[in-house]
From TrEMBL:
Keywords: Lipoprotein, Signal
Cross-referenced Pfam families: SusD-like
Domain of life: Bacteria
TM spans (from-to): none
UniProt name for this protein: SusD/RagB family nutrient-binding outer membrane lipoprotein
Residues annotated as signal peptide: 1-25
Organismal lineage: Bacteria, Pseudomonadati, Bacteroidota, Bacteroidia, Bacteroidales
Amino acid sequence: MKKINIVRSWLIGSFVLFGITSCTAGFEDANRPGHETSLEELGRDDYAVSSFITELQNFAFPEQENTYQNTEDLIGNYLGRYMTYVKPDFSVKNYTCFNASDDWKIVPWRDVFAKATSSFNAVAVLTQEEGPMYALALILRAQLMLRFTDTYGPLPIGVEEDANAYSSQEKVYSHLIETLDKAISIITPLVETNPGLVLKADADKVYGGKMNQWCKFANSLKLRMAIRMRFVNQDEAQRIAVEAYKAGVIEQNEDNCAITYIPNGQYKTSVDWGDSRACADLESYMNGFGDPRIYQYFKNTEEYGRRSVVGCRAGANVTNKDLAMKKYSAANIEEDSRGMWMTAAEMTFCRAEGAMLGWDMGGTPGALYNQAVRLSFEQWGVAGQEYYYLENSENTQEYYYDAADGYGGNHAPVSTITVKWDDNDSPERKMERLIVQKWIALFPDGQEGWNEIRRTGYPCVFPVAQSTNGYDLDVPNRIPFDPREMNGNNQENYRKAVEMLGGKDDYAARMWWQNGGNK
């Protein structure tokens, strides 16, 4: 692969992937532990690689409270309709109402994208793009870049002639699958020879160095991507999905992918700071279904009401945080709770959707659907209660009553879907049932919840409580790029990226993989 020389713009050294050596020049000045150790000193032992692997894990799904709030809470958790803000400062300009400030838009690129790429560059140099630690870096990079491209669309990943140029989302997907395949090809022979292989356990806050589990996670990322793209390229999606499943994805909760980071990001934003509370959409579905997981997801409200767990409408005009904190439910999470990246339940729902299309996913749609729900109940500590839940063919989303003197207003149900699987239902009805349950099980990963709403149109969600500022959408299709791009020294590449979006860098431009929902 060609070497790439990076233009020194606001993302110095950021647009990079494997096969790049020249673009890592100067990485010694970025993210170096202690900011004093030289490359020569770092290269004399394993400290360097371990340190940068840990940094990559911290960026792949940020848990540091300020970064978490700006990259996960304000975007995915709110747009995925899991949480919503109760902080008046957030009520005027935000992503939910399609008018976030430029300051908000800058943070993910400045604090995550640029720094993560610098860490990846360091690993690429120190490992000479070989070996299991390089493979692990490729997997972590794929995890991060997938979340970014599913937020913005086109992405600068360093594969174009101009390294600062954006690649189309379709090309980003193809590239990430290629890099995952490369990582899998490095790790698989090692774990076939030694299934219990553990490397750099102290540096690995996710799997403790267990390489077999990293291989399953890499295949699971491929399956996630295959399902995401199946509306736009079903043949390729089927090939990737079946290949990933046959190679081995996450099927049991013991292999769930989660990071240890204290304090947990959602604990800080919802429990400690009190900035976020349960969203009415998730609450109304779960309360309507009589879902026992709701008490694992959320705390009871401090203020007595008609039900124990109460969510707030997305986009509500909250004017008093202290009152709102008491009226609506906080996340039921602890300071040391692990941050979940991927679960067996999600992978089994993906397999159920593939089975609906006739793909070889190791079971029938109904059997896999039921197994996915069972896995989620087990994950959340309510195993055994799923039998009655899965047999319920009557309960639906309930009428949403706002808290007394609340901020969002009441709303009638927007869905009539039930829980029990019915092979005789229409394909669309089956799809809604599957995605609603998948969405519930994906909590608290709001990014993935938002992805499902945009990809399928399900679950049906309440309209935004305030103005959507001219957009006829329930949730944004994407987030506008970092505003510095349109005014900085990368304007031509930015202009080309906007052309890929159809001519506007706004909230309405659609993802490459989107189906007919959320128009």
